[in-house]
């Protein structure tokens, strides 16, 4: 039996009085890439942000149901979101490096946790940047401001910053939608390499991307999971009519 | 054709407004400085003022202005910055927050003479502080606090939301996010606001007339025990500041060189306010470049 990083059941979520997620049930396998697709406003980003409880930042949000991460109920009041978020990294749609040097960006989380030894930080920064496939491009200018890099490079710095925390899951919210095609390709290749070490959940509105990079794909529509299966199955032989309509471009 | 004329017309209106603004400022500064600086020399800055004789200086007034400024900033900066951070980051939208925000706005629009009357009643009389530096600084705090709260709140809010999210998503607590992401990014704005408000405090007269008083003891600049009534550091002595001095000399001075003293004091005042403003910009830029790493 395969190992699951997340087991989600009966997940309902409201923004004020409007319900954004309905009875979502989904198991997310470890060390695989799970893609979430669906039209704008279908709840895919909301679902992703529920997985690291960033959704709680939205005023008036209400979450009910079960989200188990490695067997622990993360919606329980005893579970601290900070603890969860060090284990579950997140990469956002728009690259958001801090206005600091490349080195300081990657070392940020560790420094806040009190790691001060330069040798430890150096090693961690190098390892993270190598895993994020950007070490060769930036190794000679680690003290330059990360804001001066291109969008694609910034996004890989953000990935390096997330994995420097040594998470075991990385959530990505449309990580390439603000990038040009070449940068997109590099980030896609990177995602494929990363699954060796991390469980990846990626929200995308780009169906070709989902089919290229993911092992499993979930199709969301109006806050519900319509279909969730192996990516090959979804794209070659969808069971639900609405999935077929969506992936063949008839709506959305 | 006509659209082009309108465009040119609009451009010239903007240029005209800019010219009028700049010209007024240059004329005002030029007038005060050319009239005043000829009366300013080292002995003017380092002699005691005289109430009837010619040749008085502004030593004590200058010292008092700086001392009151420092005490006011010590009182208002911590309170104002923390209040601003609270409003920007912790206050939940609701009735209480609205009341706080409205109070801050009303406070910042109070005329300074009213703040002075308030200070006279509350600090000078009710609290029994008398005409003193501490009463003056408290009155100035009342009118400086809202500015610092506002500047801090605005600076914190103008830090892009995605940076706050980046930090929280790394599992960093709200407090550490405020401390390590939001405040550093907002720091140049906060510092500039504080220094600009320092210029206003330095030039304030009305709020001090009834709180810090119109007279100064004969200060002994070798007596640093703050409890000695002639010590420059004594916060409980009355203290006439530079701007109050200008007002007093102009309205009731009987010395023969009234005009020279007033214009000289005005020039010194303006110079220091200019120094605050320029310093605000320079330091703000330096710090911004520092915390954001090299370009």
Topology:
The complex is a heterodimer of chains A (252) and B (295).
Chain A: E1 4-15, E2 18-29, E3 33-37, H1 44-51, E4 61-69, E5 72-73, H2 81-87, E6 88-91, H3 102-112, H4 118-131, H5 135-138, H6 151-164, E7 169-173, H7 181-194, E8 199-203, H8 207-213, E9 216-221, E10 224-230, H9 231-236, H10 241-247
Parallel strand pairs in A: 3-8, 3-9, 6-7, 7-8
Antiparallel strand pairs in A: 1-2, 1-4, 4-5, 9-10
Chain B: H1 2-37, H2 42-46, H3 59-90, H4 95-109, H5 112-126, H6 133-157, H7 161-169, H8 174-203, H9 206-209, H10 242-252, H11 258-291
Helix pairs in contact in B: 1-11, 3-6, 3-8, 4-6, 5-6, 6-8, 7-8, 8-11, 10-11
Keywords, please?
heterodimer; A: 252 residues; alpha/beta; Rossmann fold; four-stranded antiparallel sheet; 10 strands; B: 295 residues; mainly alpha; MetI-like fold; 2 domains; 11 helices; globular
Give an overview in words.
The complex is a heterodimer of chains A (252) and B (295). Chain A has 252 residues and is an alpha/beta fold. Chain A has one domain (4-247): P-loop containing nucleotide triphosphate hydrolases (Rossmann fold, 3-Layer(aba) Sandwich), CATH 3.40.50. Chain A is 37% helix and 27% strand. In chain A, the strands form two sheets. In chain A, strands 6-7-8-3-9-10 form a six-stranded mixed beta sheet, sandwiched between helices. A four-stranded antiparallel beta sheet of chain A has the order 2-1-4-5, covered by helices on one side. The model of chain B has no long low-confidence stretch (mean pLDDT 91). The longest helix of chain B is centred in the N-terminal third of the chain and has 36 residues, at 2-37. Chain B is built from eleven helices and no strands.
In short:
The complex is a heterodimer of chains A (252) and B (295). Chain A is of the alpha/beta class and 252 residues long.
